[in-house]
Every structure is written in structure tokens, then in C-alpha cells.
């Protein structure tokens, strides 16, 4: 039976804005308070999905969370009609309002950790929504994200859905952005590499920015997903690069099948980490561990270009393509490195540059926008077919975006009750396009 890695990209929500909410994310802070263009952001994301589909790669769509999150605002003491809640929050706690308007669920690399059936003891695909408890604007996503995942992967015989880990700093979990799977083929058992930023029992941690993924969270997910312990590896991220803006592992490393591309400063005690990865990999195809030297690409250049937040995908025609943000072409050392990479002796033989600038300015590259889900033919057929990208769905979603999205949004617009009405109307229509049923709080009232 054939197995595929399916990229489920998050649609950018109608309230996409630059609020600068993500401390430790350099781009997010640098572009705070600038005008955003939600329509352009959503269309850029949709075009990225189309480009992957045209390469012959299976592509899916995940709906965004509903914003503003009135449930959270009401739980914090704001009462009255929906419009009154927005008005009161805008006057009394504008920072809370910004958090409840955030469109950050677009970055579905943080939506969940996913383990394929070829790795799990019960032979089901396992999903655990990330609790994202390091940032308020993301910590409020988990419940809705879980409902969306259950609406997309909705067959109990094939899929197992877990609750998010407890909302406590001991179990800080940022999802697949800190999880890489190395294998010689998608349908074969793989090595699950969990990268964490902090261990509660160790003093090795960043000094400036927070470590968002804990060892304890990664271990809990591995247990819950029924992974074999001898096929799990827990590696600590270098705390020094976290302090340079590498808030997730996928900002400094990326893997696909038997290729792992990473910066020479990616991991704590890197030589030992690389040795452990090499020793733990058991695939029949050789493992390509590609270490990028600081002389070729500095950490600062990696963060500026998001070279490692590219998507590394296997092409049906053979070899692999790196789907990189167009910003990589604007940093000479990065473009030079990628040109050499595709000519070197490794499976990466194509570089595709895409424009996702609206996402990049908020701190998310191509890899942030997608959740990788390895599925067999049967599992793919058991998934919600309305969420798989086709030419027809691409056209419908494009028309939906053109109909509902603003092309200019700033912080002051968040106090406008019309934005709430526009957003909810758009998302209510989207759930029908994607056959999701009622997944939003405003639909469940």
C-alpha cells in the first residue's frame, strides 16, 4: 500500500494582523503595529498550497480558529452583547483584545504533534493538539484546533485523537514544529526526533527568551501516541540559538524521510546529538545528515531568511524539493548555499521559492503554515475529502477570500464590531465549504 506525506496548510484567518504578540520571535516584534493585508496573506497561503499540489504532492486545508475569541474575553470578566464585549476590552485591556484577535492558528506546524500508523503500536494515526501555553494568544487555540482536526480526520478505525497536555509550564508543547521523523520511506517505521528547549530537571536553558517546548511534554506525547521507546530520540535545542530568535526547532533544522538539514549550532552538545541520531536511524536507505556551517549561513542570516523554515518534500518524480520563502533570495549567503545544496550529492535536487511575505512578517515561513500528516491510501480515503485541495476547492476558497477579507487592517480596526461580524460570517461559510460541521464556539451556542 502506498503512503504519502500530506501537507495540511492552515488558511490565514480574516483577522490577520501585526500585533507583535510573540516574544522571542524576531519578525513578530519587528513588524508590530504595521498594517497587514489579510486578503493578500490568505491568497499567498492558498497559492502555496496550489504550488505544492502542482508538484504532485497531496495537499490539504485546515480551517483557522474563530477570531475574535469572545469566550476568552467573557471568561475574563467582559460582559454584555458581543459588540459591548469588544468595546469594553478595547478600552480597558487592548492587549487582551489583540490576543483574542490573533490569526496565529494559521501556523499549523504548531497545531499538533502527529504520529503515523506505521510508528504506533495500535496502527492508528495519533493527534495531540498543542497546548501552546507559552503565549496567551496561542494557548486559547487548543480546544478549537482539536475539534477541527477531529472533523478532518473523522474515522475512529484509523485515527486517534488526544486531549492537549495540561496547561502548565512543565508541559509546554508547541507541536510538530519541534518534531521530526526520519525514515527510509513514509510507510516504514521511523525515528521520531523530539527537540525540546528545556528540561525541568536541568539548569541548561536560554537566558533571554523562553524555551517553549519541554522535555516532559515531548515524553508525554511519545507515551500517549504509543511509540516504541527505541524509536524515539529526545534532543535538546541549543539554548544560545533560542536567545537569538530561534523559538522553534523548525527555525534551525528541517527533516524529511532520510534527509536532515540543520545548522551547526542547532543542538546542545551537537556532536553527541548528531551521533545519537545517526546511531538510532535504522532505515535501509542512507541517512543524509547535512550540517550547515556558521561560515556559510550564520544564525542571524538563518533567522532573517528562514532558510530552515522551508518545506522539504519528496517529489513523485524522485528526489526532493526545498520550498523556500522568497526572502532566502535576498540574503546572498543563503541563496549561494541553496544553489550549492541542490548540486551536491544528496536527494535535494530542486529549490522552489514562494512569496509568503504576509506570514513571514509575522514570523512564520512555509513550514510554519503546514502540518505534515503521513497517511496510507486507506487513511487518506477515510479523511474528510472536502478538505483536500483540488482545482475546484482552490477556486472556491479564492472566491471566498475575495468576498470576505479586508485588504488593510491595523490595531485600531480591532475595536470595530463589524470586523467580528465579517469574520464570523466568513468562517460560518467556510465550515460549509469544507464540510466541517459546527466546530466554532459561536456555532455551538
Describe this protein's structure.
The structure is a single chain. This protein is α/β, with parallel strands linked by helices. It contains 17 helices and 15 strands. The strands form five sheets. Strands 2-1-15 form a three-stranded mixed sheet, with helices on both faces. Helix 2 runs antiparallel to helix 15, helix 4 packs across helix 5 (94-101) and helix 15 runs antiparallel to helix 16 (417-433). It is globular. It starts with a strand and ends with a helix. 53% of the residues are buried.
Keywords summarizing the entry:
single chain; 445 residues; 3-stranded mixed beta sheet; 17 helices
Topology (elements, then pairings):
Layout: E1 3-10, H1 26-30, H2 38-54, E2 59-62, H3 70-75, H4 82-92, H5 94-101, E3 112-115, E4 125-129, H6 136-139, H7 142-152, E5 159-161, E6 179-182, E7 191-196, H8 215-224, E8 232-236, H9 239-242, E9 253-256, E10 259-263, H10 270-280, E11 288-292, H11 299-305, E12 311-314, E13 320-325, H12 332-343, E14 348-354, H13 357-360, E15 370-376, H14 377-382, H15 391-404, H16 417-433, H17 441-444
Parallel strand pairs: 1-2, 4-5, 7-8, 10-11, 13-14
Antiparallel strand pairs: 1-15, 3-4, 6-7, 9-10, 12-13
